[in-house]
């Protein structure tokens, strides 16, 4: 097994083995979706959401589109990662939250709406109750800001997707660095769409997982068909010391919208991963993803299954 550097225990999350005869590297939880609008009175939909192990259970930040169709973020707690108590209290306006533990704090990064366009907001908490907001991590327009779980070369790092106002070409992943989570710079290109399944744009997903093979990143890629966008999940491995370098990258998606709850909803044909929890002892990975901009699904893989798939179908090597 590849050594996992930043895993935690996710033993109380009900694991399901890969179904007999199933050919692909990522398989769905059989009781999907795990979070729906029924979890919160004010919700039209709850999707693209991120969770972390917390105090023996789990805590999370959830994207809620309200019944007034505002986009807001709320928190929630769970003992098993499946049954969640979500709060009605809005912590920030915006969408697509990620949560990243760095030392003893939890950092939220999300898409914040400003009059000039979307930026990446950053805020920290120790308890998921009190939040301190940092400077915005970019100027408009950008999305998909994803922090690394430790400093690299003494600097915080964030994957980010700067984009223009909809003109092509846009939709590449870059990386930026900061000494203090206030000033950001040293922008470096990481990767562009290559294959058809991701051709329109790509964006980082969960907090990268550190292994001895490199940083494992799951990301989303968007295909434009005659029927609109299709969002699928891909994966790549970045260099541990210089994560702007892509070492390996799967040529094909690992999860695509095939189930009814992924293909039917407010925005059909979307799987949008925002969290991947890894169990340090076993290498088991639980991926939380938004399904059709309507609910949250859970999928499983292992570090080794994912790495093998990436290397067997490598765009780079
Ligand atoms: C993106 C974001 C995501 C959403 C996706 C599909 O641009 O808005 O929150 O899941 O589109 O609608």
- Overall mean pLDDT score? 96
Helix fraction by DSSP (H/I, runs of at least 4):
under 10%
| Extended strand count | 22
Q: What's the CATH architecture name?
A: 5 Propeller
The name of the CATH superfamily reads Glycosyl hydrolase domain, family 43
Give the low-pLDDT segments.
Answer: none
Structural class: mainly beta
Which descriptor suits the 3D outline?
globular
Largest sheet: 5 strands, antiparallel
CATH topology: Tachylectin-2, Chain A
Q: Give the ordered list of helices and strands.
A: EEEEEEEEEEEEEEEEEEEHEEEH
* Rg over CA atoms: 18 Å
Give the CATH class.
Mainly Beta
Tally of contiguous helical segments: 2
The hetero molecules present are: beta-D-mannopyranose
N- and C-termini, Cα separation? 21 Å
The total tally of domains equals 1
Q: Per DSSP, what share of the residues sits in E-state strands of 2 or more residues?
A: over 45%
What does the model show?
It contains two helices and 22 strands. With 317 residues, it is mainly beta. It has one domain: Tachylectin-2, Chain A (5 Propeller), CATH 2.115.10.20. Strands 2, 3, 4, 5 and 6 form a five-stranded antiparallel sheet that branches. Strands 15, 16, 17, 18 and 19 form a five-stranded antiparallel sheet that branches. It has a four-stranded antiparallel sheet with strand order 1-22-21-20. The mean pLDDT is 96. Bound molecules: beta-D-mannopyranose. Beta-D-mannopyranose binds next to β7.
Itemize the secondary structure elements and their pairings.
Elements: E1 27-28, E2 43-54, E3 57-66, E4 71-78, E5 84-86, E6 92-93, E7 95-102, E8 105-114, E9 117-125, E10 132-133, E11 142-147, E12 156-162, E13 173-178, E14 185-191, E15 201-204, E16 209-211, E17 214-225, E18 228-238, E19 246-249, H1 260-263, E20 271-278, E21 284-291, E22 295-302, H2 303-312
Antiparallel strand pairs: 1-22, 2-3, 3-4, 4-5, 4-6, 7-8, 8-9, 9-10, 11-12, 12-13, 13-14, 15-17, 16-17, 17-18, 18-19, 20-21, 21-22
The site of beta-D-mannopyranose has 9 residues, from β7.
């Amino acid at each position: 097994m590849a050594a996992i550097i930043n895993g935690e225990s996710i033993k109380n999350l009900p694991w399901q083995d890969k179904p007999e005869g199933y050919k692909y590297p990522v398989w769905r939880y059989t009781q999907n979706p795990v979070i729906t609008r029924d979890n919160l009175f004010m919700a039209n939909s709850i999707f693209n959401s991120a969770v972390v192990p917390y105090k023996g259970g789990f805590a999370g930040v959830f994207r809620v589109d309200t019944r007034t169709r505002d986009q807001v973020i709320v928190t929630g707690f769970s003992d098993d990662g499946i049954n969640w108590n979500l709060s009605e209290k809005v912590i920030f306006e915006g969408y697509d939250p990620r949560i990243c533990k760095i030392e003893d704090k939890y950092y939220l990064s999300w898409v914040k709406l400003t009059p000039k366009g979307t930026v990446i907001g950053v805020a920290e908490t120790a308890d998921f109750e009190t939040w301190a907001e940092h400077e915005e991590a970019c100027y408009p327009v950008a999305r998909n800001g994803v922090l690394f779980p430790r400093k690299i070369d003494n600097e915080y790092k964030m994957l980010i997707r700067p984009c223009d106002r909809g003109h092509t070409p846009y939709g590449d992943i870059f990386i930026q660095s900061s000494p203090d989570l206030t000033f950001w710079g040293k922008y470096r290109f990481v990767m562009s769409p290559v294959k058809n399944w991701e051709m329109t744009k790509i964006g980082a997903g969960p907090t990268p997982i550190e292994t001895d093979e490199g940083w494992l990143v799951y990301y989303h890629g968007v295909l434009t068909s005659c029927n609109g966008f299709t969002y699928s999940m891909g994966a790549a491995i970045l260099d541990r010391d210089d994560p702007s370098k892509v070492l390996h990258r799967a040529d094909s998606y690992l999860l695509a919208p095939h189930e009814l709850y992924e293909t039917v909803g407010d925005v059909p044909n979307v799987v949008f991963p925002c969290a991947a929890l890894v169990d340090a002892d076993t290498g088991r990975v639980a991926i939380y993803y938004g399904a059709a901009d309507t609910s949250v699904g859970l999928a499983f893989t292992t570090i080794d299954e994912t790495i093998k798939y990436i290397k067997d179908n490598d765009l780079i090597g």
